[in-house]
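User: Sequence in, structure out. Go.
Assistant: Echoing your sequence, followed by the structure tokens.
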Amino acid sequence: MIKKKSLKNLKPVKRGEIRNPAGRPPKARCIPDILKLIGDEIDSRSGLPNIEALMRIVYKKALRGIPWAVSFVAERTEGRVAQYIGLAKSQKPESYLTDEQKAKVADMLDGDPDGTAGIPYQNQNQIKELTE
């Protein structure tokens, strides 16, 4: 609840008045911002921007067959390969849990007979299919 005293302290801004002359404080720099600044600098040896000089070095390593460089270049030129993760209907989640893990899950679901507490309704049927 707002007190009447605190409302008396509020004053509307007058035309032309600047309440915060220094403005918002500058945002803290983060690693990507710093790396972008360094990448924009010109390399003294090649005369190219640092980022371009770096990419040329990586590309040369890829041409020599260095695996991480080949992967790096391929992912940035062709895109990453899609990775699918999931369970087959025949594979029940209990089949890969140890007895100790099963006991922990049972304790967590204690008092929840169908084991769906905290799971969005639309996903409950999928989970039941997997565990039956």
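User: And one key feature?
Assistant: The chain is about 45% helix and 0% strand.
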